[in-house]
């Protein structure tokens, strides 16, 4: 997506208020012929318009599993595949950055160091147990030419916007929206253990939230991982949820539509780093900036290179 002042543009690269850096990715400096071949190959491989890469936005700890008392660096990333970059979102757009875990709820905005070259913070975790990091941003405005906005809302399964623009005969009009971001990450400190109500499965009150219905880090957990999507406090039916392997993320590994209860069912291998993402929008009236209010949400988790043991193994 392109934005008049936001983080999505027609070069398939996030730039601006929550996008990546304004320099070109390294692969661009191959000359025009090589650049064209790479771009065509990527477009064919992912089977979607190239602007879609800028939509992903997530929390990336350097390690999802730490020893007790350990520390990990963390980066806010945007894009995917060859367009993955460190986000340049300014501090005044982040309205919430918290951790939830054995020591309760902690406001960690003061630990962010946005603007550094490679990382956004270094986070210590004193107590053993499972933690969830949660981040929210405020809104910024975006506008796309009509054809590109239509491609984008179709790619993200935003049926309300598709149907409204068709009904109003505005499919060729520029698409104007205000959008914001939500992101969570699950971190395990020390060995995992069964919990009465693991923090990973709890709702944290994000306006668009991906909530696992099983603890992915529980001892003996298998690959089945149902997730439930909540929008403005209620289960969201008909949302397109995507699962990305963050080690090979040129295209989603799986995509599912949520059922009437807001659930989608995935298999997540217990090795490597994984990201769920979902987008939802609603029409707005009376806002001179936009016709839709859109929210992007993600959940990241990861496993050691040696898979956690299963029972009787």
TrEMBL record:
<protein>
    <submittedName>
        <fullName>DUF4198 domain-containing protein</fullName>
    </submittedName>
</protein>
<feature type="compositionally biased region" description="Polar residues">
    <location>
        <begin position="1"/>
        <end position="15"/>
    </location>
</feature>
<dbReference type="InterPro" id="IPR019613">
    <property type="entry name" value="DUF4198"/>
</dbReference>
<dbReference type="Pfam" id="PF10670">
    <property type="entry name" value="DUF4198"/>
</dbReference>
<feature type="region of interest" description="Disordered">
    <location>
        <begin position="1"/>
        <end position="27"/>
    </location>
</feature>
